[in-house]
Every structure is written in structure tokens, then in C-alpha cells.
# Entry
Amino acid sequence: MKQQNQGRMSPYVRMSVNGGVLTVHMTARRVGEKEVSVIAAAAHRVLHRHGGSIQALVLDVGSVEMMKSIGLGMCIDIRNRAQAFGIRTSIEGLAGRLEELFSMLKIDRLFEMKSQRAA
# Structure
């Protein structure tokens, strides 16, 4: 499959599709209500448009320093929507407090873990 870079879709998210892998690069340092609505809408749009040709989804949170509970829910929602298409989902870039939060709430168990970002 040819790479399709969706480019910078907003100040909060950038998408790319390469070799059947959709990567959702969260570019916001803090993910709250405003960022979640933009990130989720963009991810849902790409999933619905390309869902049949995507085999894997990567949520890249390497730039995120803080995520409110609504952001955690968004990660789960994106994973669930991808799963409805038969797409496996992983998280990349979990580190520091965000990694501790995902682990403490056991959200990390819902995702395949990609290589960790340097602390």
C-alpha cells in the first residue's frame, strides 16, 4: 500500500497511512476536552474512509505530557472503533506520568505496546 500522509490536520493531530498502518500522531502537549474533539473526529474520519485497507493503528502519544480523563476515554474509543473494523491497536511513546497513569488505570492492557520514548 502506498503511503498517504494526511499532513498536519490541526495543531493537535497528524495522521499518516503507510503499508496498511494508520498512525495517529497526537501533537498536543496537553490533551483535554478541546483537543479530544479534534483528535477523535480526525481519527474516526480516517478509520471510516480507509477502514477496510488498514491492518493496524498506532496511537503515538510521544508528544503528550498531560492527558485528562476525557483523553484516556478517547484512546479507548479509538481502539474500540478500530477493533470494530478488525484493526489491532497499539500505543507508542508512553513515558513518565502518562505511562504511570495508563498503567495505574490498567488502560495499557488494552493496547499492544510499541517501543518506549526515552525518559
Summary: The CA atoms of residues 69 and 88 lie 23 Å apart. Residues 1-8 have pLDDT under 50 and may be disordered. The two ends are 33 Å apart (CA to CA). The first strand starts at residue 4 and ends at 8.
